[in-house]
Amino acid sequence: MxxxxxxxxxxxALEPRAGAVQAHVDACSRCRAHVEAVRVAAPFPVAxxxxxxxxxxxxxxxxxxxxxxxxxxxxxxxxxxATPSTTTxxxxxxxxxxVWLNRGGVVTKWAGQPLRAKxxxxxxxxxxxxxxxxxxxxxxxxxxxxxxxxxxGTSLTPAWAFDGEAEAERLRVIVSRGAAPPTALRAGPxxxxxxxxxxxxxxxxxxx
Amino acid sequence: MSDGIRQAWQRYFSPVREKCRRVLGDxxxxxxxxxxxxxRFWKQGPTExxxxxxxxxxxxATHLSVxxxxxxxxxxRAVPQPVYGTDLEASTASRQLLAQLAREADAEExxxxxxxxxxxxxxxxxxxxxxxxxxxVRRLLARFDQRAQRQEESP
Lengths: 208, 155
Ligand SMILES: [Zn+2]
What we know:
Bound molecules: zinc ion
Distance between the termini of chain A: 59 Å
Oligomer: heterodimer
Strand order of the largest sheet of chain A: 1-7-4-2-3
Largest sheet of chain A: 5 strands, antiparallel
Number of helices of chain A: 4
Number of strands of chain B: 0
Order of helices and strands of chain A: HHHEHEEEEEEEE
């Protein structure tokens, strides 16, 4: 019998989905035993409580802070902006990403200017046929946001507030067909692939 | 914040521990390496989405397990008994082979072999976990297979 990999089984144990793995697990006692075993949580070692907490470098900020933006963004439509570290797409029908900056309640398109503490940013994405958007923090190596989006039209991501501590934040916005593969979630140059495009933004702190 | 770490532990520690056991057997080494992997994960790994978190955990656990295998090989320590019952013979043979080749094969080659022979990953899955091309995976596994064949043929 050909079993799915343990990676596929572990993924299934965490996120059960109908499909080939589910059908196999239903029929195979070895794989079912594995899935059941990894779903049983091991006792938590109290010593780990002392580990420093993972404070998110970007705090979620209520989307309300950008309440005025939604209308504005749709009114002006997507306009490609040149930023210091971003590929610019100008042809119609290619994905585009715009960064919106909220500084003290005033929302403007970000034009590469340095950020201050409490500034918040969010992305507006025109996926041009791609169906998933992922925002990845290259410095913290964390996925900030991933969601299915309508392949046409535009979508807004949640907003993130800049805590002013880091000298720079490096975020990448990936538009893909299906979930972004792990290989796209890392630091370094973005390479366009068949099923994904990637945009990088470096947001520097004022005075650095 | 302790809720966060408990939640991450509940979700991810068991798969990591099982993964380490597949390579290192059901002894203290597997527990140590699983815990070390989790601590690194908590400090710097991506906790969401699960597919990305698991790829990170497999990469790190494989890397640390291979380190441990190689250090065992240098100090000629015995390999503990395996855990998996149904595929016992196959997994024991693969594990013994890895232990035998741990000293001479390079780490990347061993990592690919662990992911392929013990974790049953496809070439595509190995490429994703190791962050290399499928071509590199095929090359690493071919090199490992040649080494394994030489080992079998040697008296
Ligand atoms: Zn099976």
